């Protein structure tokens, strides 16, 4: 996803394939909170905690639900 698409995903639930700093690949379901300076702040539904993701490490993203409250 481009930066513009991430901005439009704020408040939405998105499934992502992510590469961690250790090089491990994970699939996560996140609710996007904010997008800034190449980072995505999101609530990770899988871990139940807020996380910070590097945009460059998101390998794939698929919108699951629009604007979840």
What's the domain count?
Answer: 1
In spatial order, strands of the major sheet run 4-3-2-1-5
Helix proportion range: under 10%
N/C terminus separation: 22 Å
Structural class: mainly beta
Total helices: the number is 1
Q: What string gives the helices and strands in order?
A: HEEEEE
Please give the number of β-strands. Answer: 5
Would you identify the regions where 5 or more consecutive residues have pLDDT less than 50?
none
Instruction: Name the quaternary structure.
Output: single chain
CATH topology: SH3 type barrels
Question: Which architecture per CATH?
Answer: Roll
Strand content: over 45%
- The backbone outline, from C-alpha atoms, is globular
Alpha-carbon Rg, integer: 11 Å
Question: How would a crystallographer describe the biggest sheet?
Answer: 5 strands, antiparallel
Rounded mean pLDDT score: 91
CATH class, anyone? Answer: Mainly Beta
């Amino acid at each position: 996803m481009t930066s513009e698409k991430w901005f439009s995903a704020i408040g939405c639930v998105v499934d992502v394939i992510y590469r961690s700093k250790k090089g491990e690949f994970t699939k996560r379901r996140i609710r996007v909170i904010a997008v800034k300076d190449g980072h995505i702040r999101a609530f990770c539904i899988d871990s139940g905690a807020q996380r910070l993701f590097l945009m460059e490490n998101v390998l794939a993203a698929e919108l699951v639900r629009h604007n979840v409250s």
